């Protein structure tokens, strides 16, 4: 479908694209071909597509995959897709909010995901003990941070969290003109593979949430020394009665140096989380 096709269908459906839903519809076949090629879909794949829109990607996914679950928040688009793909036995359209529904089992996510909720989607779909592969069109600034895992001074919370569960494989710049309406942000396609093993600490749901909260709490202070960042976080969020001296003693007892937060690696953050989890356990 080209721009005129999209505009005509949206007019018939009485839909004005909403920014809050991230409604930017894929109109470029070359971009679609790149996404599908990266997905390397097999007949055994169970695909989750988030925000299928008018089905530009869906029509390719259903050709090969064993099953496709397409989650669409807009009821009018959901009805349109149901009619468009009425003959597809391997497709299930789910009208709902991806952040609120129970997600069906799947092994691969192929999506142009809503840009405004990229972080929450990553956390719900990928930050777990058995994450799927992800082929995602996302904001380029976020993609750059995900792939900055070897240069920790430019890393952020999303760098550490994504690289805890996933292995960044490839990144491609995607033209904004591939979508209608044209997004206001630069875009990139990322290919993320699940890590071969996830630290045992993260298997437990409560411990995993604790780890992600630690990252959320101290990464805003990534240019401060670890003890300072932890003192600010533990007082505000963990309600632990620990001053900087206490924290320095804990770090020393566990052979962790008090360096700037942006110098630590994923394994360091995991160890720090385990230590402070035990303090409140």
Give an overview of the whole structure.
- α5 (118-126) runs parallel beside α7 and α9 (226-238) packs across α10 (244-253).
- The chain has 281 residues and is an alpha/beta fold.
- The strands form two sheets. It has a seven-stranded mixed beta sheet with strand order 4-3-2-5-6-9-7.
- It has helices spanning 3-12, 29-39, 58-64, 75-84, 118-126, 140-146, 157-165, 205-218, 226-238, 244-253, 266-280, and strands at 25-26, 46-50, 67-72, 91-95, 108-112, 133-139, 166-174, 179-180, 187-194.
- It folds into two domains: 3-197, Rossmann fold (3-Layer(aba) Sandwich); 201-280, Helicase, Ruva Protein, domain 3.
- It is built from eleven helices and nine strands.
Helix content: 40-55%
| Total domains | 2
Terminal Cα span: 55 Å
Number of strands: 9
Would you identify the regions where 5 or more consecutive residues have pLDDT less than 50?
A: none
SSE class: alpha/beta
Work out the radius of gyration. Answer: 21 Å
By CATH reckoning, the class of the largest domain would read Alpha Beta
Mean pLDDT: 93
What is the correct CATH architecture of the largest domain?
3-Layer(aba) Sandwich
Largest sheet data: 7 strands, mixed
Any idea what the shape is?
elongated
What proportion of the residues form beta strands (DSSP E)? 15-25%
What is the helix/strand order? HEHEHEHEEHEHHEEEHHHH
Question: How many individual helices?
Answer: 11
Give the strand order of the largest sheet, numbering strands 1, 2, ... along the chain.
Answer: 4-3-2-5-6-9-7
Say which CATH homologous superfamily of the largest domain is assigned: Vaccinia Virus protein VP39
The CATH topology label of the largest domain is Rossmann fold
């Amino acid at each position: 479908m080209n721009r005129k096709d999209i505009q005509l269908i949206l007019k018939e459906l009485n839909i004005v694209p909403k920014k809050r839903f991230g409604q930017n519809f894929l109109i470029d076949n070359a971009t679609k071909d790149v996404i599908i090629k990266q997905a390397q879909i097999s007949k055994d794949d169970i695909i989750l597509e988030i925000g299928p829109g008018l089905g530009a990607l869906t029509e390719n996914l259903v050709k090969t995959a064993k099953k496709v679950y397409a989650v669409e928040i807009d009821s009018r688009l959901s009805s349109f897709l149901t009619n468009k793909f009425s003959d597809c036995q391997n497709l299930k359209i789910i009208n709902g909010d991806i952040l609120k529904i129970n997600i069906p089992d799947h092994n691969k996510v192929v999506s142009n995901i809503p840009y405004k909720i990229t972080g929450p989607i990553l956390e719900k779909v990928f930050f777990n003990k058995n994450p799927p592969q992800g082929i995602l069109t996302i904001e380029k600034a976020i993609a750059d941070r995900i792939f900055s895992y070897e240069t920790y001074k430019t890393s952020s919370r999303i760098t550490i969290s994504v690289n805890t569960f996933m292995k960044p494989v490839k990144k491609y710049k995607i033209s904004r003109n591939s979508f209608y309406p044209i997004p206001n942000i630069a875009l990139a396609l990322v290919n993320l593979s699940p890590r071969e093993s996830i630290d045992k600490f993260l298997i437990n749901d409560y411990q995993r949430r604790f780890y992600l909260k630690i990252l959320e709490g101290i990464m805003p202070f990534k240019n401060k020394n670890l003890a300072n960042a932890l003192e600010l976080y533990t007082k505000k969020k963990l309600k632990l009665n620990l001053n900087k001296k206490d924290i320095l003693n804990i770090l020393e007892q566990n052979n962790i140096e008090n360096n700037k937060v942006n110098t630590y690696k994923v394994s360091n953050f995991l160890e720090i989380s385990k230590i402070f989890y035990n303090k409140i356990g």
